[in-house]
């Protein structure tokens, strides 16, 4: 006899995960150049750490594409992380809101956010280590 209490895959799950993945990808596209420059500034031991000369040197050596070097690995990590976060947050929030009084709904949001952070840390931590390694390879190459 089949277990009827098994959670079914619904279009809402795919919608939440898809929205999160899209948001994560857009954020990565927008902020990757800033992260690249931050890494270059941090890698400078002494000397000129001003942003504009560092950005100018990067663009003159590698073109505008140099600002987006390493974007692929960033997207590979950020899209599933954002999908997991959004799906976990929405699922936990919806489950809690059904069982707690309306005047305590803020608690559902806090717990959902915490659960989503824990869920994403299983992907984020290893990907952050890989991103740092890739950034170091770019800087010291």
From TrEMBL:
GO terms for cellular component: membrane. It holds the Pfam family Mito_carr. Belongs to the mitochondrial carrier (TC 2.A.29) family. The lineage of its organism: Eukaryota, Viridiplantae, Streptophyta, Embryophyta, Bryophyta. PANTHER family: S-ADENOSYLMETHIONINE MITOCHONDRIAL CARRIER PROTEIN. This is Mitochondrial carrier protein. It is a multi-pass membrane protein. Solcar repeats lie at residues 11-95.
């Amino acid at each position: 006899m089949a277990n009827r209490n098994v959670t079914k895959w619904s279009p809402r799950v795919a919608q939440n995960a898809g929205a999160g993945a899209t948001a994560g990808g857009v954020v990565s596209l927008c902020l990757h150049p800033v992260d690249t420059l931050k890494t270059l500034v941090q890698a400078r031991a002494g000397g000129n750490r001003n942003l504009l000369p560092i950005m100018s040197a990067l663009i003159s050596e590698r073109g505008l594409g140099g600002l987006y070097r390493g974007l692929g690995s960033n997207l590979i990590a950020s899209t599933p992380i954002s999908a997991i976060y959004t799906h976990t947050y929405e699922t936990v929030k919806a489950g809690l809101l059904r069982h707690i009084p309306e005047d305590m709904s803020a608690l559902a949001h806090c717990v959902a956010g915490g659960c989503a952070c824990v869920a994403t840390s299983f992907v984020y931590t290893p990907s952050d280590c890989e991103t740092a390694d890739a950034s170091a390879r770019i800087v010291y190459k």
